[in-house]
Design brief:
13 helices
């Protein structure tokens, strides 16, 4: 259990040994400055041998001394803002808390976490208070001695100031900037003490060289964004945060759509593997997410039933069965997120984004190349819509409608890539595709619920239980699926006009 989690908003400033601290009471809003407190801090930072965490601007450290001794994990949010997670110290100085291991697994990818830097800091800290005695911020005057560990040691020493907000807005940092400039003090050129201690060894992610405004340029910018979305949701999925699985599935879907729709702009043996592995990952996350949705759906159905219509132990049977199935799917999902295949997928994606092999088509202007590629997706969607209309009722028809839903997803996510070039067209087409996707999603969820109710009623029958209520719920779901299909038919009449080429 975390001892404390918080958001950290701070700014560091480069100073030398002779720099004099100005009168902090002259900062706007500051009424009183507490007497200084001196702390001796020691922190050991952990990372992989290739400094994977530092490359993502993540710090993982074990600190002793001061009033916040413990394990700290800092995750970037914005330039001056980070999420800071705390865990208490344990007797083993090398045993990283399990929670932190889960949260950085997407970056560590099975590699060992090792001590990479040791910092010893002589810190003088003062609290800056407002008229009502609130602590607005902390001002820290740090003298730092760092030691880069490993085969290439590097000892360094420096002094820096740090202003950390407590109960002040971000504008307080701008006020501090203006005052410090009067004594020739400027914001630090290093993003953190760790970055400075590493002495330039931290990897820097740079965008690949592409032709500005080209189809390849737009695609690579989109892939970087989609990759960031996927990676950002991984720790939240592991931490069982609500909606994280759904957001991670969307990130995967946008990546898959980009590779399917715009695959002609890329070459290389990794592309088929990426498409295959993204499909595998989507299926595993989908199974867990779908069970969660199904459980909520059936629970809502039961709560809407009149009490005298709920016969037998149907509520406890459904809950027990779906909880067991959800636990199994959750376990399978977490195993997949710790698997070599998943880490290989992430490595391949990073390699592709860092060093893409673009085709000759990729150098063409995006506004002339991409519309045709997206139009081919629209043609396939309309073809799937016609095929579903011809397919007779029953399982084949349900599968055909599901194919329409998948084709609509591809159009929707493809149009997201085109948004910077033709926002009106992209929003129109993405909106039409989203409407189709949502109504067919409701239809699909209802079909899954019907199938599950049939399966559970069979199990209940074999146990000698009354299955009357299962039949009522099944009938209600049948009606819901018919209503969803009726809404789809209404959309179908106007969608061909909205899903036009240019």
């Amino acid at each position: 259990m975390a001892a404390e989690d918080m958001r950290e908003i701070e700014r560091k400033y480069d100073v030398d040994e002779s720099t004099t601290v100005p009168d902090l009471r002259s900062l706007a809003g500051v009424s009183r400055v507490d007497p200084p407190e001196v702390n001796e801090l020691e922190a050991v930072y952990f990372d992989t041998e290739t400094l994977a965490l530092a490359g993502e601007h993540i710090t993982l450290r074990r600190r002793t001394g001061g009033d916040d001794a413990g394990w700290h994990l800092k995750l970037p949010i914005a330039a001056d803002e980070r999420s800071e997670l705390h865990e208490p110290l344990e007797s083993d100085p090398l045993r990283i808390p399990d929670r932190f291991r889960r949260l950085v697994a997407v970056h560590v990818r099975g590699h060992a976490l090792l001590p990479v830097v040791r910092l010893r800091t002589h810190r003088t800290v003062v609290r800056l208070r407002a008229d009502d005695d609130r602590i607005l911020a902390l001002f820290c005057d740090d003298v730092v001695n760092s030691e880069r560990l490993g085969p290439d040691p590097l000892p360094q020493s420096w002094r820096e100031w740090e202003v950390e907000l407590v109960d002040a807005t971000g504008s307080f940092l701008a006020v501090a900037d203006r005052m410090f400039r009067t004594v020739d003090v400027w914001p630090s050129t290093s993003s953190s003490k760790l970055a400075r201690a590493l002495g330039g060894r931290a990897p820097q992610r740079t965008a690949p060289m592409t032709t500005p405004g080209s189809a390849g340029d737009l695609l690579m910018a989109a892939l970087r964004q989609y990759r960031a979305r996927l990676v950002s949701q991984d720790p939240l999925v592991r931490d069982e945060r609500p909606e994280a699985i759904h957001r991670m599935r969307i990130a995967i879907a946008t990546l898959r759509s980009a590779f399917v729709t715009f695959g002609g702009l890329l070459s290389g043996r990794s592309i088929p593997m990426l498409r295959s592995d993204l499909g595998w990952l989507a299926a595993i996350l989908g199974a867990s997410r779908d069970l969660h949705i199904l459980s909520e759906r059936l629970d809502a159905l039961l709560r809407a039933e009149p009490p005298d219509m709920v016969v037998g132990p149907i509520a406890s049977t459904i809950r027990t069965q779906l909880v067991a199935e959800s636990a199994a799917e959750q376990s399978a999902m977490l195993q997949a997120l710790d698997s070599e295949r998943y880490f290989r997928l992430l490595d391949a994606l990073d390699d592709l984004i860092a060093s893409p092999t673009l085709t000759e088509e990729a150098s063409a202007p995006a506004k002339t190349m991409l519309p045709g590629m997206i139009d081919r997706r629209i043609v396939k969607l309309r073809r799937a819509m016609r095929a579903a209309k011809r397919t007779p009722a029953g399982d084949p028809h349900e599968r055909a409608l599901h194919d329409v839903r998948k084709a609509a997803k591809k159009v929707r996510y493809s149009e997201e890539l085109f948004l910077p070039i033709a926002p009106k067209r992209a929003k129109r087409l993405a909106g039409a595709a989203k409407s189709l996707q949502e109504v067919l999603g409701e239809h699909h969820d209802s079909i899954v619920a019907q199938s599950t109710l049939l399966r559970l009623s069979g199990m209940a029958h074999n146990l000698g239980e009354n299955t009357f209520s299962y039949g009522r719920l099944h009938a209600r779901e049948q009606a819901r699926s018919k209503r969803a299909e009726a809404r789809y038919d209404r959309l179908l009449r106007r969608s061909p006009k909205r899903l036009t080429g240019r």
